[in-house]
Amino acid sequence: MSLIVRSRTAVGRAAAMRLLLCGLACCTIVLWGHSVLAKPDYTELSLQAGHGSLKEPQPDYEFTQVTLHFGHDVDEWTRAHWGFNPPGEWDLRISPALAVLDEPKHGVEMSCALGLKVSLQVGGHLRPYAFGGTGPLYTTIDTLEQSTRFNFGSYAGYGLEYRVNDRQGVSFYKLVRHFSNAGIKDPNDGVDTDSWGVSLIMYN
Description:
This protein is α+β, with helices and mostly antiparallel strands. It has helices at residues 2-38, 75-82, and strands spanning 42-52, 61-73, 89-103, 107-119, 126-139, 150-163, 168-180, 191-203.
């Protein structure tokens, strides 16, 4: 019995931590986002196709997503406030996204995430990078995994950018994502997806 209680307590703490992190991300998007959206250092348009496994008898979770990333270089800020000179380029990004769901039902998925992208320059034009983020997510369909349509999504991935010139770049990337409702209501098994995508990057 004590083991069950401890297990439930640990799950509750983990859910509370996820909810807190997503809440902080939402607040940052609202409070900090207006300045980034008004004058981003770059705007990135991404198109990706994703897939995830669901419980039987449901078909797999399949979607096509368009994302706009509004990026802001934080290298100077970290040097000025923390005395830390990060390697490569560090960018904070606000990423609203809209996805069309093909399976398990036709529907729409909407999300907005706060994320970090870290890039390294290799040679003249190539920049490998890693990225991740979290934020609220809403779907218009129901699944056996989730009791709510409102969820929180977290993602991480990597990619390779080719810098065409000072104003433009293209990239290819892969990412994995998990979304669930942070323990708000059961069932809450979550949905895991993986995606491949391509981006067009426009620097200001």
